[in-house]
């Protein structure tokens, strides 16, 4: 795996599912999920069953030997990957291996990709000049961080060596289920079946392929319910939208109906009232004219009586006699005609007969209907 991990891969592989932080001393369970040893110890102290550990992520039970978390396999793969990530993906400081041996703490600026030593500027110069190490490949940390091609070389540095003999682990002891060096093979594991590491690697690769196939099948099976759920979610969302649309258009319709009815009611009220008002104002006008005409006739009579010369008055002898008779005629004409209007009798129109014709139940979601 030469490619650097992306953010999700880093999180999934290198973070603990219990504390959420970077895995420290990671231990792997039967389900292939890893957790910090310390997190598992704390979890186990609180658990009632001591001989199994239950995965925090998937609930799988993993048996413990001697009720001990120590019996779980150390996940050296994520541990080593984590170390490389720490170098390439962070600004962590590392200290010069040589200076540290001398009791100094000088910050390392390079790393030897052959022997894995961290080197300060001075020690790097020396490392490249000394006969034993002058062919070693020394690169600066800045180079390592920007150039992904150094990643496989960095990974190689963490290839496990025998702790007892500092030799490469090239064989596998089938009895002890552990890789061994040639020294181990001829000492501790002398009577055990020891096979070349490659033979086991092949088997492991086959098992890995099978596991990958299985997980792919599981993931495919997960897609179906996921899609069903998404479909259901969409259905519910659509129904909600439709119902809200029904309510919305019902409200618009009711508002429109109320407005129409109000307009009709206004008309129903104002038409008869306007007609009556017209009649009344016409009568008032006539009444005013009649009153003025009476005043005029009276003024004429008054002035003629006061100031009329005899010769003038006699001119009207015949006319004034007729006025007396005309009084009765005038009474008959009697205008304006009386208008009999009782305000209380003007009817009030029937109003606002609106109703919601689309009842919406709040509990049961009705079948989708187009808004009316
Ligand atoms: Zn943890
Ligand atoms: Zn699990
Ligand atoms: Zn140094
Ligand atoms: Zn070196
Ligand atoms: Zn050994
Ligand atoms: Zn053995």
From TrEMBL:
Domain B box-type residues, every copy: 98-141, 162-197
Domain of life: Eukaryota
Source taxonomy: Eukaryota, Metazoa, Spiralia, Lophotrochozoa, Mollusca
Residue ranges annotated for the RING-type domain, each copy included: 16-58
Keyword terms of this UniProt record: Metal-binding, Zinc, Zinc-finger
Any Pfam family matching the protein: zf-RING_UBOX
Classification via SMART domains: BBOX, RING
Keyword field contains Cell division: no
Organism this protein belongs to: Magallana gigas
Name of this protein: Tripartite motif-containing protein 45
UniProt keyword Zinc, yes or no: yes
GO molecular function, one term: zinc ion binding
Cross-referenced Gene3D superfamilies: Classic Zinc Finger, Zinc/RING finger domain, C3HC4 (zinc finger)
